[in-house]
Give the backbone structure.
Amino acid sequence: MTATELAAIAEVEHGRWLASKREQGFTFGEDRSKKQNPYLKEWADLTDEQKNFATDFARGMTRILAMADYAIVPDTNANVTGSSKS
């Protein structure tokens, strides 16, 4: 898997996580007791450190899948955000 592909997986996974947290009522902030999270930002607004954390998480996901004999393969009909091409 290339670095570009891994970064794309990290970005898509962050978007999925972000949508899930927002649906659960979380907002941006530092107070976890008030359902706040400092990572509740769009991908473009994350710091390099936060993007690296997400990329490391994606790398770990691909390793877990590989241990179970699964693999992530590029979808030639999708762009980076995962939406289908017309």
Observations:
- Residues 3-67 form a domain with the Globin-like fold (CATH 1.10.490.160).
